[in-house]
Each structure stands twice: as structure tokens, then as C-alpha cells.
Design a protein that fits this description.
Layout lengths: L2 H7 L10 H9 L3 E2 L1 E3 L2 E3 L6 E5 L6 E6 L3 H20 L1 H18 L1 H12 L3 H29 L3 E3 L2 E5 L5 H14 L3 E5 L6 H12 L7 E3 L4 H9 L5 E5 L2 H10 L6 E5 L5 E4 L5 H13 L11 E5 H17 L18 H16 L3 E3 L15 E4 L6 H4 L6 E7 L2 H8 L7 E5 L3 H10 L4 E4 L18 E2 L4 H5 L3 E3 L30 E2 L1 E3 L2 E3 L6 E5 L5 E6 L3 H13 L2 H4 L2 H17 L1 H12 L3 H22 L5 E3 L5 E9 L2 E5 L7 H12 L3 E5 L6 H12 L7 E3 L4 H10 L5 E4 L3 H11 L5 E4 L10 H4 L2 H6 L1 E9 L3
Helix pairs in contact: 3-9, 4-6, 5-6, 6-7, 11-12, 20-22, 21-22, 22-23, 25-26
The chain binds NADPH dihydro-nicotinamide-adenine-dinucleotide phosphate (NDP).
The site of NADPH dihydro-nicotinamide-adenine-dinucleotide phosphate has 27 residues, from α9, α10 and α13.
Length: 793
């Protein structure tokens, strides 16, 4: 071909990366890999192996151990044994190991990148320039956190043995996002990589060996979903960290309900990519390429729903189609390829079926004119227009290179479309108008918002979902909390704190005689119970002292509706919320004597104890009023040209099932922090002594608490709690009660992936500030949103 002809066609020549070093590494292991347990390579007790292949050409790469139940048990035991050794090293000792791992990953980065491309089918361009550098950065960054553990997080300790299960789409990246923070905070790990992509995890295990990581600190068990399930269900695992499908996430949430295991779930998404008419359209087109064709669209936060302002929609689609024609697909080791292979024939089939469904449902399909290679599992970049927001392909995560486009007229409509999903992992907003971008950012329900950028990640920033995209964060300071627990958790009690409680002498004079049933408090108004039934409340000697409404499902539903109507509270400033809370404290103080008398009457405590409970309640309201504008976020030092704002946001509508003991202090200590952070609350007060809570109605009324911010439903907690845990419009639920109740809450909350905080039958000493108040409450009432804003040169 002459130079002139080359200029004319501008054809790319092949630019293959050599696979030799990676294939030699496999050969050195005779193409067969054992499990890495307790610092040794061990043949699986199951005696089973499975094959791993290269999806770009279907070549067999290696045979890998298929761990069975006994292997998983062995690995957990090794991790348990290693825990004291790892802890004894101290923060600096652990930091040195993490640093050494980072160095080794960097030194072997080319081998990692090639092996990852071979095993997964993703392009070498991505593994070399994105995945592996992010992995090294993660270990470096967390080497720093390991060093700082004892100074920055004095009040926290490790969780223990952590089971980690990762998917195939970013095998090494997911490994680093899980192992680095876990080790940095002093935990030991058993990891199960995905069946489709085990090789780089095994190479990583070798690195652990090379740096002399103490035996059992990291254990690598390859296997399928069954091995994952064994790990999840193992009794001696203290925490499960999972990334994968929402379906499996739900199974895991249910499987460990009531076990007391900590859990973080990073699940699926259907993230919006929003283009306003003033956006730099050519940059936005490149953004689209990164959003949906990066890693063949097999990205949990892929910008798979394109929302374009109507007046530029056709022009923009045309630009996207033109760009699609220029994308290059092929062998993952070709350095000039944009799109590699799909991970497996099953995944290819799923994508194909979803695309057919899209066509059947009336979507207009565009695929480039060029054909995909036929020697591997390839799928062309695909654009659907003419789709409705409710169509299957607009709602379901396809996990492939398929973009679904819709248009909008106003920015309010864009917002509605963006939030019209059960997921909430990420969103990307494209506009030159910073005001518009920063108006959208807090209102989109997603864990990460990228402004004029997309799919950028860094160890210094948290990543994770809202809603059915799961909970917990990976990366950033916020991610470390997934691998720590407050030291005070070890001090929780198996029985409620005992106070000197005498049988109350119900006084007819001190307390206004009750001649009416206390109603519910819904939407700022007192409401009769829907069922028309009431419960008789007695003092602790069994003498009736009043009646309260017996709440039912309908009352709960009404309260949830009212709580949603109160959502303006969420957008009020912290200062404004604080003012309301101070006023509440003031009004409670003004009526303190009544509450003292009520406590004496209901639970038979001495006047001094009742006074103490009222006084502490007032103090606690002050604490959270103070924190309302002080529990702020961070500006993360991410490495790209951005500022990344880590903003704590309210969960939304929260249910709080208050402790039965300490009818006033227990209520205040749980409901007020949730309110302070901007949540609207449905509270189930103490079942045995609810009159203290119903006495609060007037205090709430006189304190300018807007209607719907606090809703109080009295009744039997075992009847009311399941309805709350089941409710799809409740975003979070705290439950302070029995072990069985805790299990039920966690199980039922799996359906819409509610954030849960349960007491597992343990009790707090609400009189003690260590256990009864503090940051833990605020953290549980919020979730971190990371907003990436281009900044600087
Ligand atoms: P899964 O959720 O099934 O797999 C993720 C990990 O969990 C893998 O290691 C898997 O093992 C393991 N696993 C599977 N079942 C269980 C179980 N019951 N208990 C514990 N661990 C289990 O994802 P898939 O790989 O099957 O992909 C299916 C779909 O999930 C994709 O099409 C995509 O939509 C979505 N997905 C989302 C991801 C995300 O990051 N949000 C990542 C990957 C997939 P094994 O690999 O052996 O099956």
C-alpha cells in the first residue's frame, strides 16, 4: 500500500501487545492453579477444577480450583488464625505491607494488564491505562490509611474476618477496592473472585506471598457461586463485601439476616447520562463513548440511559452514530482497539436477547455498518432511540454495549426521567451552566454524580449506590467505615440497663386524667387509628393509665405518605433544621415536669431518674441540633482534574422502631439524629410506655416541626415493623429490639435494599453518651454522595 493510499483510508494497522509473558506465567504453573489458603498453595479438597478461557478467541487458558465447602472453611479458619498476627503488627507494620503490595503491582503492571485482558476480553488500552493504575493507586492510598488508622480512627476497631466476593467485569480493580481497605483497617480476608476471571487474583496472591504477607491475611478461593454462598453462610465470617448483580445481592442480604454480620453491597445500575442543550456536544459524545462502550458496557455505573434535551436530540444522536461508525472492535490485546470481547457466551446471549426485546417493544436500533469479528464473543455498540421510559430496555440493566436514548424538554423533566429507576449508582450531567449542574447534582438519587465527565474513579473518593444499587461505599474515608466498627459496640449489653423501678403509685393529681385515647400523629395532625381499636396502657404495676390507638398497616401507609409529603425538610439548610430542634428542646424543657411525672407514672422510676432522663433528652436534642450543620462532608483529593465533594445526604424517609426501655430518651436518641440529618421519620415508640411519645405531639406542634417530618404510630411493634420493613417507599429502617425482630427487618428490607440498622437483641445504655449518641447515629442516617466537578487546569 502506498503512503498516499494509507492517507486516503487512514486504516489502522494491527498493534498487538505480546501475550508471551502472561502465557509463560500460566505455563510456569503447568496451566493449573491451586487455592491460596494460609499462605500456601493447596489443592482443593473438592478435587474439582474448572476451565478459564479467553473470550476474544475462545482459547483455553488454564484450569483453576473449584473450592468446595471444606475449602472455604479452611480459608476462613486461616483468616481467623491470622487476625491476631496481623493486628499485632500495628498500624505502621500493616502500612508497610500495603505499600509493598502497591509497589509490586506497579512493577508487574504489564503482566497484570495482559493477563486481565486475556482472561476477561477487555482491551489492553483499558487494563494498562485504567484498571491496573487504579489498583496500584488503591494500595498506595490505603497504605496511607493503614498508617493513620490509630490516630484518625481511635474510637474504631477492625471488624474481623471479612468474606469478599467480586464479579468479572473489573477483576483486579474490584479486588483492590475490597482488599486494600480491609487490610488497612486491620481485618483479614477470604476472597472469592468470579468464575470467569480468576487469573489476576491468583497472580495477586503470588504478590502477597512475595512481599511476605503473614500467612492467612489474604486467602484466595476460586470457585463458582456455590463457593460464594458457602463463604456468605460461614458462621465465623464477620462481614461480607459483595459486588455483583442486585439479584445475588438480595440473596446475600437475606441469607445473613439476623446473623449480626456486617454487609456492604455494590450492585447494579441503570445510570442516566444527561445532555443539556448548552453542553459541549463533542465532549459529550466522547463522554458517551466512555460511559457505555468502556469495558463493552459491562460496567455497573455505565451511562446506559442517554437523556438529551429535545431541541438538540436529533443532532446529538447523529453525532453519536457517526462516532459509533469509527469505533474499533477486536482482539483485546490490540492496542488500537476501543471495544474488546464480551466476557462469556452467556453474557453475550443475555445482551442479544435484551436487544431483541428492545426491537420487539418498538425501539429503533442502530448498529455500525461494520461487522464484529466472529472468532470470539463480540457484540457491536448499539443505540436505541424511540424508546419509552417504561420499556424493558430503559429499566433493566443490560450490562453490555447498549445505549438507550430518550429526550426531555425541561430540566425538571430530565430530573424525573433520571430518577425513574429503582437503581441509584451514578449519573453524568453535561451542561456548560454550572448552576444547572449543581442544581441537578443533589436532586439526582445516586451515589456518584459526574459533572461534564463520566466513569472517573479514584481511591480517595467513595463509590457506591443509593436504592437498589446497594449500600456501603468503597474508597475515600467513607469507605473505611465498611471495615471498622465503633469500639463501643463490644460494650453493648445483653439486657436493658436496670434502674430502680418501683411499682408506680399512679397519681391522680400530677398527671392530667386521661379520658381520651391518644391518637396517632401523622402529617403534623392527630389522627384516629384506621382500625378504630385502642390498646390499654398500664403502669408497671398493671394499673391502667391511659389508652393509645392500635396502629395497623393502613396507619403505616398513611404515615409513609405523610413523611414523603414532608420532604421539604430534607432540602432545608442544616442551620434551619437546627433552629427547629433547639426550639423543640426549649419546649420540652418548658414542660419538663409533666414528662418527669409521666415517666414516674409509666415505668415507676424515681423522680431523680425521671429527671435525669428528661434532662438527658434535652441535652441530646441540643447535641443533634448542634450537629445538624456540622456533620459535613469532605472535599476529596482525587487525582484527576476535579474537586470531588463527598456530601452526606439524608436517606429520605426513615422508619425508627424505638427501644422499649427509656420511653423518652430512647425515642429522642433515635428519632432526633435521623431528623437532624434531614430525614422524615415514621416512629414506633416504646410499646409498653408509649404515652411519653404521645405527650410529645403538642411539643412538636409548638416547635415549628413541619407536618410529616415526624409521624408517630403507636401499637404492637411486631405487627407494625414488618409493614415498615416491607414498604417500598421507606428508604431506611432502624430497629432497636429483639434478635428475631432484627432478623425479620433485615430479611424484608432486602426487597428494596433499604438501609438497615438493627440491634440484634443487644441493648444500649442510653444514659451513656458513648453508646447513646454520636457520629454512628448520623452516619447511619445519611449516605455519601460524591460529586465530581471539573476544577483547575
Ligand atoms: P453475579 O452477581 O451472579 O456474580 C457476582 C459474584 O458473586 C461472582 O463471584 C459469583 O460467582 C458470585 N455469586 C453468584 N451467586 C452467588 C451466591 N448465591 N452467593 C454468593 N456469591 C455468589 O453476577 P454474574 O456474574 O452472574 O452476572 C449476572 C449479571 O449481574 C450481569 O449480567 C450484570 O447485569 C450483573 N452484574 C453486575 C455487576 C456490578 O458491578 N454491578 C458485576 C457483575 C455482574 P460466579 O462468578 O462463580 O458466578
Amino acid at each position: 500500500m502506498s503512503i498516499k493510499e494509507i492517507y486516503k483510508t487512514m486504516e489502522y494497522g494491527p498493534a498487538p501487545e505480546s501475550a508471551t509473558a502472561a502465557m509463560d506465567w500460566i505455563k510456569d504453573h503447568k496451566g493449573k492453579f491451586q487455592l491460596f489458603i494460609g499462605g500456601e498453595w493447596q489443592a482443593p479438597l473438592s478435587k474439582k477444577y474448572f476451565e478459564t478461557t479467553n473470550p476474544a478467541n475462545k482459547d483455553h487458558l488454564a484450569d483453576v480450583s473449584d473450592a468446595g465447602a471444606k475449602d472455604v472453611d479452611k480459608a476462613v479458619k486461616a483468616a481467623r488464625k491470622a487476625l491476631p498476627v496481623w493486628l499485632a503488627l500495628g498500624a505502621h507494620g500493616r502500612a508497610r505491607y500495603l505499600y509493598a503490595i502497591a509497589r509490586q503491582v506497579q512493577k508487574h503492571s504489564r503482566l497484570f494488564a495482559v493477563l486481565e485482558s486475556l482472561d476477561n476480553g477487555k482491551t489492553i488500552r483499558e487494563t494498562r491505562d485504567i484498571d491496573i493504575p487504579i489498583v496500584a493507586r488503591h494500595f498506595y492510598h490505603h497504605a496511607g490509611w493503614a498508617q493513620l488508622k490509630d490516630t484518625e480512627f481511635k474510637e474504631y476497631k477492625e471488624v474481623g474476618v471479612v468474606g469478599q466476593i467480586i464479579p468479572w467485569n473489573f477483576p483486579m480493580m474490584m479486588l483492590s477496592w475490597k482488599i486494600a481497605p480491609a487490610l488497612a483497617m486491620g481485618n483479614t480476608v477470604v476472597m472469592k473472585p468470579a468464575e470467569n476471571t480468576p487469573l489476576t487474583a491468583l497472580l495477586f496472591a503470588e504478590i502477597c506471598e512475595q512481599v511476605g504477607l503473614p500467612a492467612g491475611v489474604v486467602n484466595m478461593i476460586t470457585g463458582d457461586g456455590k463457593a460464594g454462598a458457602e463463604l456468605v453462610n460461614h458462621e465465623d465470617v464477620n462481614k461480607i463485601a459483595f459486588t455483583g448483580s442486585t439479584g445475588v445481592g438480595r440473596i446475600i442480604r437475606k441469607a445473613i439476616a439476623g446473623s449480626g454480620k456486617k454487609v456492604s453491597l455494590e450492585l447494579g445500575g441503570k445510570s442516566p447520562f444527561i445532555v443539556f442543550d448548552d453542553a459541549d456536544l463533542d465532549s459529550a459524545v466522547e463522554g458517551i463513548v466512555d460511559a457505555i462502550w468502556f469495558n463493552q458496557g459491562q460496567v455497573c455505573c455505565a451511562g446506559s440511559r442517554l437523556l438529551v434535551q429535545e431541541n438538540i436530540a436529533e443532532k446529538f444522536y447523529k453525532k453519536v452514530r457517526t462516532r459509533m461508525e469509527k469505533l474499533r472492535i477486536g482482539n483485546s490485546l490490540d492496542k488500537a482497539v476501543d471495544i474488546g470481547a464480551i466476557v462469556s457466551p452467556q453474557q453475550l446471549k443475555t445482551i442479544d436477547e435484551m436487544v431483541k426485546k428492545g426491537v420487539d417493544e418498538g425501539g429503533k436500533l442502530f448498529q455500525p455498518s461494520w461487522a464484529c469479528p466472529s472468532d470470539g464473543y463480540f457484540y457491536p455498540p448499539t443505540l436505541f432511540t424511540n424508546v419509552t421510559p417504561s420499556s424493558t430496555i430503559s429499566q433493566v440493566e443490560i450490562f453490555g454495549p447498549v445505549l438507550v436514548a430518550m429526550s426531555f424538554r425541561t430540566h425538571e423533566e430530565a430530573l424525573k426521567l433520571a430518577n425513574n429507576t429503582r437503581y441509584g449508582l451514578a449519573a453524568s450531567v453535561w451542561t456548560e451552566n454550572i448552576n444547572l449542574a449543581l442544581d441537578m447534582a443533589p436532586r439526582i438519587k445516586a451515589g456518584t454524580i459526574w459533572i461534564n465527565c463520566t466513569n472517573v474513579f479514584d481511591a480517595a473518593s467513595g463509590f457506591g449506590g443509593y436504592r437498589e444499587s446497594g449500600f456501603g461505599r468503597e474508597g475515600g474515608k467513607e469507605g473505611l467505615h465498611e471495615y471498622m466498627k465503633p469500639r463501643s459496640e463490644d460494650e453493648l449489653l445483653s439486657k436493658p440497663v436496670t434502674r430502680d423501678q418501683k411499682v408506680a403509685k399512679t397519681s391522680k393529681t400530677e398527671i392530667p386524667q386521661i379520658d381520651r385515647t391518644a391518637k396517632m400523629y401523622v402529617g403534623g395532625k392527630q389522627k384516629r387509628p384506621d382500625g378504630g381499636y385502642s390498646l390499654t396502657i398500664t403502669d408497671n404495676g398493671g394499673t391502667p393509665i391511659g389508652e393509645v390507638g392500635e396502629g395497623n398497616r393502613k396507619d403505616i401507609r398513611n404515615a409513609v405518605e405523610a413523611a414523603h409529603a414532608g420532604s421539604k425538610w430534607t432540602s432545608m439548610t442544616g442551620h434551619a433544621r437546627a433552629q427547629v430542634l433547639y426550639f423543640l428542646a426549649e419546649n420540652l424543657a418548658a414542660r419538663g415536669d409533666e414528662f418527669v411525672a409521666r415517666l414516674q407514672q409509666s415505668i415507676g422510676v424515681s423522680e431523680a431518674d425521671a429527671l435525669k432522663e428528661v434532662e438527658l433528652s434535652i441535652q441530646r436534642i441540643y447535641t443533634y441540633a448542634a450537629m445538624a450543620d456540622k456533620y459535613d462532608g469532605n472535599v476529596h483529593h482525587t487525582i484527576t482534574r476535579n474537586v470531588t465533594l463527598a456530601m452526606p445526604e439524608a436517606l429520605g424517609v426513615m422508619a425508627v422502631v424505638c427501644p422499649d426501655e427509656f420511653p423518652l430518651l430512647g425515642f429522642i436518641s433515635t428519632v432526633i439524629p435521623a431528623m437532624a440529618m434531614g430525614n422524615c421519620v415514621i416512629a414506633i415508640p416504646s410499646e409498653t410506655a408509649p404515652l411519653t411519645a404521645t405527650d410529645l405531639y403538642q411539643v412538636l406542634d409548638t416547635s415549628d416541626v413541619p407536618g410529616g417530618v415526624v409521624n408517630i404510630i403507636t401499637g404492637e411493634r411486631d405487627v407494625l415493623t414488618p409493614t415498615l420493613a416491607d414498604h417500598d417507599d421507606v428508604d431506611g429502617i432502624w430497629y432497636f429490639g429483639s434478635k428475631e425482630g432484627s432478623k425479620l427487618v433485615e430479611e424484608k428490607s432486602a426487597e428494596n435494599m433499604k438501609r438497615t440498622w438493627v440491634s440484634n437483641g443487644k441493648h444500649r445504655n442510653w444514659l451513656d453518651a458513648e453508646q447513646g449518641e454520636g457520629e454512628a447515629f448520623l452516619r447511619k442516617a445519611t449516605q455519601i454522595k460524591n460529586i465530581w466537578i471539573p476544577y483547575g487546569a
